[in-house]
Amino acid sequence: MTDVIRRKIDRARPAVAEGAPGADRGWRLALARATRDAMGLDLDIRALTISRFSLAEILETVPDRALLALLDGPQGGLGVIMLSPMVTASLIEMQTLGRLSSQAPAPRRPSRIDAAMVAGVIDRALAGLDDTLAEEADLSWAGGFRYASWLEDARPLALMLEEETYRVLTAEVAMGPLGRQGQVILVLPDLGRGHRPVQPADDREAAAPQFTQELATQVLQADCRLDAVLGRLRLPLHRIMALAVGETLVLPSAALDAVSLETLEGRRVAGARLGQHRGMRALKLNETQAVPQVPRPAPAPAASPVASADSAAPGQPAAGPELRAAG
């Protein structure tokens, strides 16, 4: 019963509603998995807050001697990730020594080499955030960012970042068996420039695109016959019965540049010009030139018992079947 109620509540929520729990949970998982998979460092996020800061407020919250990495995002968006000195030193120590020493290193200013060594971990964490938010609305502002460059200090941020509101994810982390304390601060534009997933309301809507595609596939595989009509000729029945192999029939109204493309019912759908393509007969559709449509003659009346098609007067045309030259 509890699961049923929970599903009903989830369905009642807007499919693309903004929600901090998505980015909160996603960043916790992505950051911890990135350090564990990349270098075997156990990182525990003790607390994580999501706030909205202006550019001036961000510049005031930069930790002392923090490693600053500029991030490239969708549609030219820029973000920043800040690693406190203890976090940076622990990442470097794990990559160089394979373990964390019992004595914490002294704080120091990060270098370009430090940034190059932690760039892979940053990208791995950001890629993991994309994966966890694949079906979350927070993907529109938190997804698609990657490491771009290293900043020696925070002063260029005032010129590089736009004057807009930013979302700041501040994670208080503990690393290694001794629980070294540090901060990881992720700063991203509040205005989402990335892809915004739209979730179906139920299973029927999720299956609708697949059904539509399968139906379209079946319809497009159906055959539709069209006849290319060069001209029409009306002959008496006795003349038709007397046709011989090799005999030539003159089509008075035939023209190679005035071919009529018709359905089996005789309805004209397009005009065309007769030609060839790679040694085969072909038609080139001609939509600009009006092709005269020859009206189909009315069916001949039924012959009476007294008169027949063979008994027509020599000077009068006899009713008979219609011949069409079709390509």
Number of domains: 2
Mean of all residue-level pLDDT scores: 78
Q: Structural class given helices, strands, pairing?
A: alpha+beta
Q: Provide the low-confidence segments as ranges.
A: 6-20, 288-292, 302-322
Tell me the helix content: 25-40%
Number of helices: 9
Shape annotation: rod-shaped
CATH class of the largest domain: Alpha Beta
Distance between the termini: 69 Å
**SSE run:** HHEHEEHHHEHEEHEHEEEE
Provide the CATH architecture of the largest domain: 3-Layer(aba) Sandwich
Side by side, the strands of the main sheet go: 1-5-6-3-2-4
Fold-level CATH name of the largest domain: Chemotaxis protein chec
Count the strands?
Answer: 11
Query: Which percent band covers the strand fraction?
Result: 25-35%
CATH fourth-tier homologous superfamily of the largest domain: CheC-like
Sheet with most strands = 6 strands, antiparallel
Can you describe what's shown?
The structure is a single chain. This protein has 327 residues and is of the alpha+beta class. It has two domains: 190 residues, CheC-like (Chemotaxis protein chec); 69 residues, no CATH class. It contains nine helices and eleven strands. It has a six-stranded antiparallel beta sheet. A hairpin with a 4-residue loop joins strand 5 and strand 6. Helix 2 crosses helix 5. About 13% of the residues have low confidence.
